[in-house]
Model the fold of this input.
Amino acid sequence: MAESKPTATASVKATSVQPKKSSNAISWIAPIFCIIAGYCIWRFILGDPKGFEQRGEGWFWPHHDKAKDSLHRIYQGGIIVPLLIGMLLMVFTFSIERYLTIRKALGSGSISDFIRKVQYHLANRNIDAALSECDKQRGSVANVMKAGLRRYKEMINEPGMNTEQKVLAIQKEVEEATALELPMLQKNLVFLSTITSVGTLIALLGTVLGMIRSFSALGSGGGAGDASQLAVGISEALYNTALGIGTSAMALIMYNVFTTRIDSITYGIDESGFTLTQSFGSLYK
Done:
């Protein structure tokens, strides 16, 4: 029976990459806070009684009528409006959070320049200088590269493995470091992608409810004077559509911007792993 070669994992130490500790509080606090803030904006700013000629009674949803300007007319769009405002606030909140996170993940300086410097140091067998470049860059690509370089340095003097097994060990270290970096980059993007599709549907729901209310009023009145009220009701209902489309459009733009940035980081990570394995395979045969 042919003997099987020992695998790289049999003699290699466990990965040195440690899971990142990150709080997930914003993922459930921000949506609740944004919905509450959306209601407050709708109820106390857009629904300020001073902006209406006829003021309604009640606390949660006073039915004011005859708005004095377009800003206060948005209030008459109905109870769906605060939900749409809350979703718009969520787009702002998660866009800022993702911008700060991805900006940190990009590190300092150009990723391509950083990889070229590491390649230069590896070609000169100067591992410590390459590690120093990782400390200067401080991004996700640098974190993955640093984890791979540490294993790279260990494999140089590893006597119990052949070159192929050492390259596999370096590759495994890079893959494990990548698996810890990517979730941090993609975290909370689901909110932007969800709002992109759901925002327009919720806005359409608000428009339909407003149209039902307007036509019901027209049917019960039956007079020509109600036609003007119908036009006003339709105008108020369409505020839902405008607000929902604007929110969805902004969420889609920000989602595409962030995914493009993440793709550039992912490409840099892939190039880092290729650089390490190719360098070791050619220099330490």
Residues 226-283 form the longest helix (58 residues). The beta strands are 52-54, 65-67. The radius of gyration is 29 Å.
